[in-house]
Specification:
The chain is of the alpha+beta class. About 20% of the residues lie in helices and about 35% in strands. The protein has helices spanning about 1-40, 155-160, 280-285, 345-355, 360-370, 380-389, and strands at about 45-50, 60-65, 75, 85-90, 90-100, 105-115, 120, 125, 135, 150-155, 180, 195, 205, 210, 230-235, 250-255, 260-270, 300-315, 320-335. The strands form five sheets. Strands 3-2-5-6-9 form a five-stranded mixed sheet, with no helix packed on it. The chain has a five-stranded mixed sheet with strand order 10-15-16-13-14. β13 and β14 (about 210) form a beta hairpin. The N and C termini lie far apart (about 100 Å).
């Protein structure tokens, strides 16, 4: 009987272990199944045709695409129609090399690929030996002909140079055509920007392909501006992969590591010690002009410190990279003291004495429980109060 029991316990443990392993494998499969959906949003595609000097298609040509930052290379061959297509490429700058028997090697450098974009790069090969290279520098940005979506893209260089109050990258939404600042007018859970006439909470937000939108609209996480590689706002004709938001889709892609170490350290601050006083506070002052004696002459207290840094680089050159970012905010504010009118101590004591026989009196409880912190300065006597009324 004991042996049967032990066998049953061992079988139960094995079954539980198998169940746990099965759950783990299922989670891994689910994670990998979800990756392409994110990649379609954060990565891009290179496509194009390879032709000879007469414009005929060159089939079987080898097209190698290399990321200039990580040196990662993907190679494909053109089909019978001379067409090639390489997808799931990270945002960044690339060089494209095309080789085919009987033709000179063609090289195009400095081609930048945006998130979710389909970049068309065509090649016309010249007759000659593969040892000869024809180099073509990337020219002006071409009109997007492979995708019907309407978008505005702002790169890392623009983000670092544009004035951003509070370093909030989502303020860049207002740079897109059809976007209007609605703060102070609309109080919904959005960024306070109306796009194409739709409500602020109709806009969607993505951070590296993952949803960054709260249940009632608005942003969940605001990334450090220094770590943003690309800010992209899609305003019309975007595909279903971007979700169910009716207005704009804001797609933020952060920087990834490269073979070169990059970093930044910053400190932005505001301090009332460096500020001038409000004009009207000075104009209305009739007392002492010394701010140490007259607090109304001092600017309202506001101390704001925003500090942090970023660091990207290689862990294992050409294979493994890291990205790190930190930002801290410290905000302290306090309004200037202003005089308020309150009852004189004699009046408060009279109310308390008058209600001595009625302990449940609200006035007596308030005056006895919450005495004034400062006796203050006499402002008006009872006679003056009656006469002024």
């Amino acid at each position: 009987m004991n042996s049967v029991k032990n066998y049953f316990e061992m079988s139960t443990r094995l079954f539980r272990g198998a169940s746990l392993c099965g759950c783990f494998v299922a989670l891994l499969l689910l994670a990998f199944a979800a990756m392409p959906a994110h990649a379609q949003v954060t990565n891009g595609v290179f496509t194009g045709t390879v032709t000879d000097p007469q414009g005929a298609s060159v089939g079987g040509a080898e097209v190698a695409i290399t990321n200039a930052g990580t040196n990662a290379t993907v190679t494909v061959k053109t089909n019978a129609d001379g067409l090639y297509r390489i997808s799931e490429l990270a945002v960044g700058t690339y060089r494209l090399t095309v080789t085919a028997p009987g033709f000179k090697k063609a090289l195009k450098t400095g081609v930048y690929l945006n998130a979710g974009a389909i970049e068309r790069v065509d090649f016309k090969l010249e007759l000659g030996q593969q040892t000869e290279t024809v180099m073509v520098e990337a020219g002006a940005v071409q009109v997007q002909t492979e995708d019907s979506r309407l978008s505005t893209t702002i790169g890392a260089g623009q983000i670092s140079n544009l004035p951003l109050n509070g370093r909030n990258v989502f303020d860049l939404m207002q740079l897109a055509p059809g976007a209007v600042d609605a703060r102070g007018v609309s109080f919904e859970n959005g960024h306070g920007t109306v796009v194409n006439g739709l409500r602020p909470n109709f806009s969607g937000f993505l951070l590296n392909g993952s949803s960054d939108k709260g249940l009632s609209g608005g942003i969940v996480t605001t990334p450090n501006a220094d770590i943003v590689q690309e800010f992209q706002e899609l305003t019309l004709s975007m595909s279903a992969q971007y979700g169910d938001s009716a207005a704009a889709i804001v797609n933020v892609v952060t920087k990834s590591g490269t073979n070169t170490l990059h970093g930044s350290v910053y400190e932005f601050f505001r301090n009332s010690a460096l500020d001038a006083n409000n004009f009207f506070r000075n104009a209305n002052n009739t007392g002492d002009t010394d701010p140490n004696k007259n607090p109304s002459l001092k600017p309202a207290k506001l101390n704001f410190n925003q500090f942090g840094g970023t660091l990207t680089g290689p862990i294992w050159k050409d294979h493994l990279f890291f990205t790190a970012s930190y930002q801290g905010d410290r905000f302290v504010t306090q309004a200037n003291p202003t005089p308020i009118k309150t009852e004189a101590p004699a009046w408060r004591n009279a109310i308390i004495a008058f209600n001595a026989g009625n302990p449940s009196s609200v006035a007596a409880k308030l005056y006895s429980t919450f005495p004034t912190a400062s006796p203050g300065t006499p402002f008006q006597t009872l006679t003056q109060f009656v006469q002024s009324g």
